[in-house]
Write a structure and sequence with these properties.
101 residues, 3 helices, Helix Hairpins, 77% helix, mainly alpha
Length: 101
């Protein structure tokens, strides 16, 4: 497989994730779409590492760093979603305008 195949897969995943972030109203679905975008970035990092410097582990290290940041983002995001649900009994992102203040 060529680098173009990996980049095409990552671009498709990133576009699906971006479409999900833009069009979804449910906060959990938005978080899942952001995770899809992170996974597309991880595919790019590992693919570029494989084709540019196969002996170095730079791409894998950066992708593990992105996974750790994504896990922290999910933890904080789910905590916010749970608190919003406890207060308003809904996780509709359009109804939550209190965070704009």
């Amino acid at each position: 497989m060529l680098l173009m195949h990996y980049l095409t897969l990552a671009a498709i995943l990133f576009c699906i994730g971006f479409f999900g972030v833009v069009t979804r109203r449910n906060a959990v679905a938005i978080l899942m779409s952001v995770e899809l975008m992170f996974n597309a970035v991880n595919i790019n990092l590992v693919a570029f590492n494989r084709f540019t410097a196969p002996d170095a582990l730079v791409g894998q290290v950066f992708s593990i760093f992105v996974i750790v940041v994504a896990a922290a983002e999910v933890t904080v995001g789910l905590a916010i979603v749970i608190l919003i649900y406890r207060n308003w009994r809904s996780i509709d992102a359009d109804r939550v305008n209190l965070l704009k203040w």
